[in-house]
Input
Amino acid sequence: MELSRSRQLLRDVLAVLVTAIFAFPMFWWALSSIKPISAMFDKDRVVWFDFEPTLINYAVTLFGRSRSQLAIDDGLGMGVAGADSYDSRQSIIDTIIVSVGATGITIVAATLAAYAISRMQFRGRGLYLNWVLGQRFLPPIAIIIPMVTIYKMAGMRDTDNLYMGYIGLIMIYALINLPIALLLMKSFFDDVPKEIDEAAMIDGASRWTTFTRVTLPMVKGGIAASAVLTFVFSWTEFLLSLFLTTDIRTIPVKIQTFVTSTGNEWGFITALGTAAVIPSFIFILLVQRHLVRGLTLGSLKE
Amino acid sequence: MTQVITETRQKWQMSLPRFLTAEHPFPWLFPASALMVVFGLYPLFKAVESSLYRRNAATRKLIFQPEFNWMKVFQDDRVWDALFNTLLYTGVALTFQLVLGILIALLLDSDRKGYGILRAIMTLPLVIPPAVTAMMFLLMLNGSFGVISRGLIAMGLMPHNFSILGTSSTAMAGVLLAEIWQWTPFMVLIMLAGLRSLPKEPFEAAAIDGASAVQVFFKLTLPMMSKVISIAVLIRGIDLMRSFDYVKVMTDSGPGTATETLTSYAGRIYFGNADFPYASTVALFTLILVILTSSIFMRIFKVKL
Output
């Protein structure tokens, strides 16, 4: 529909304004991370730009510098103890390990199962899909409560053995992401004509060769989209990692530990929070084309 | 040499039972099924089992008494308050997200230069950890230095030293603000995809007939989008009913029980009283609610995922 010039201008302004409103919390968050304490906690006014930007929050959370040492170096003399508990490097490594591990397992399991559901006729196929879908609807809290006991018994919850902890989180993250990845992969397999598989098999290729050499290369986009969504959902998960492990602190849980009885360490919270969303931003923009399909479990295509 | 290998392989494959060959769905479904059985069905079964036991708080012994926890759910006023809060939370958030989602999608659905960037910015909130979003709004809603609070005070809409999240009557609104901010983009994206997939002809015909923009929206766009809208509402509705992170981080169900939802109540029973049979029962009650409402919804609106 053609709009008159003034109405088009009005629409442009409105579109920018609405986007700006939605972008504002992220902007404010990032801005707060470079504010000195005095500017952040000004009770008399909201400080916008009239402050000396500082990277101290990033130095402490991402590079493990001691805050009191930094303060002394700057001649501020504001010694605050408990510096190493704000060092979040281990959390970042843990979150990467868990997210990558969960993504790998999810993609393998989901792709194999999605191929069978898309290509083979078997009894209980509809039932199986309902099971997968039901898994997606399950409130995590319903499985967490028994899981805590199970993980304790299996030595995956409060153990000194980090590997057991990793495995525990990886498996549960793989579970919660499996339905999305599976249904998304199924919708991508459904897009590839069955005749292509059949032609390859008539030519003498086995089922497995057909899958790896013919079908799989045609759903690369789907694998990328599922992998990104799985990674992002694992990266941002909070509830399961809060309850199911005591040794591993993924980033969303680590940030909560900066909420202390003497006050919230907003500088560190915003710094780690800002750093943590950057990888997700990059990944999600890479697969933007398939995002809607992923979020609607493969039922809407763009 | 290669022939020998091929022959051996063929022989070996012949000796495998049929359900272990690639022709049978079993090996394909096995990894996914194993994951869902061990980490999904088994704990769920355990939850159902434990809901049938009564926990004696003094002796910490479990006594088999199948009806006890389930009767307690229906007599517990806190469950009903939590159910009310869950439905309020879901209803309000869903309404705002849907209406804003459609309006913003209509606004951003343009091929003009720059709109692509606006749409990309719009998707970003989706990938922020909900626990971090909750902290963002905790910072902005802080009574003394939060930017939203200061803004409301400056506009004369709020008294000084008023804490939105610390007051029973407004805490839920504060939590909802974070929820709505983060997930409206979900609706925007889906509605944009829906708008893009609509056929052009009916709109051209309507334009020739001189239909107004409002008429076109209600008589054409909305009915043609009904499938997309119902899928979006279903997925979002389910996630809202099982939402946990925002309430946990922003108010921890408080003040008092003002923002207590079913999931957060279940968590509180478990970590507060260690009464895991009853906590499981409340969690299962939530699951039943989700299944019931979603199947009724799917039946009425004929949604198939």
Q: What stands out?
A: The domain at 91-295 of chain A is CATH 1.10.3720.10 (MetI-like fold). The CA atoms of residues 100 and 231 of chain A lie 7 Å apart.
